[in-house]
Amino acid sequence: MEYEVARNDFATAGDASSNIKKILVQLGINPQIVRRTAIVTYEAEMNLVIHSIGGKIFVNISPKEIEIIAEDKGPGIEDIDLVMQEGYSTASNDIRELGFGAGMGLPNMKKFCDKFDIASEINKGTTVNMKIYIS
């Protein structure tokens, strides 16, 4: 599955994670796995909406795992170790006034998946690859 995510599109933010959740429920996936997948996908969506100039989320479901890849075009991340710290955020005040930008996106993605990898290049973009094992 592939989902396009637009910059600052708060009206449709969360649609991809909701759709993926519905599909996993229909497939009879364990509710805890569905919950974890919904969390990491939602956090990835919000990061694309808030911090990038747009991107895509790819989801691959196999009998053994769910792979979520969030890929954006954007400023890139200068210091990955810093942004992985809970509470650190580069969100603007406008975004924070909307109730987002608490600095938990990437830490939550890492916390709720079984395998987490992030790669970023300044002025090119960021790719986050996450896997949640089903069995």
UniProtKB/TrEMBL annotation:
Give start and end of each Histidine kinase/HSP90-like ATPase domain: 41-131
Q: Which InterPro entries match?
A: HATPase_C_sf, HATPase_dom
Q: What's the name of the protein?
A: Anti-sigma regulatory factor
| Species assigned in the record | Acidilutibacter cellobiosedens
